[in-house]
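Sequence and structure are no longer studied apart. As an example, we show below a sequence and the tokens encoding its fold:
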Amino acid sequence: MKKIISLLFLLLSLQIVQAQDQEHKEQIHSLKIAHLTSVLDLTSKEAEKFWPLYNIYDNKMSELRHSEIVRFIKKSDISVIESTTEKDAAAKITALLDFEEAYFTTRRDFLHEAKKILSNKKILLLKKAEEDFNRKLLRKYREKGK
């Protein structure tokens, strides 16, 4: 009985952590959208067309940044990579090449589609605003860790 209660408690705890993590991601996304909105100063017509496109792009980029190959590279120690067989390393390189191609293609396609909606200047502002937001987020994360 104690094992069942312990297991239920553990599962409940994991669900709470996942819910908090999701809430945190949504909060960051909302802050990012607010920041981009203030910088871009979109007309209502631009916003109507731009935000659905941007949200699809942003979701694809997030999926790519959380792909298995990216997690492997970020989380593996050098010793893990050194002990990888050549066959496994070849498979990882193939996955890495696929990732790089998908990452580039997604960014390029987004820019082509965004050009149909926004001026070149606003696209440059978007890229700058994204970089600034990411830099601020990283800075806050570092300060929080101190």
Observations:
- The chain is about 90% helix and 0% strand.
- The longest helix spans residues 2-40.
- The chain has one domain: 2-145.
- The CA atoms of residues 110 and 126 lie 12 Å apart.
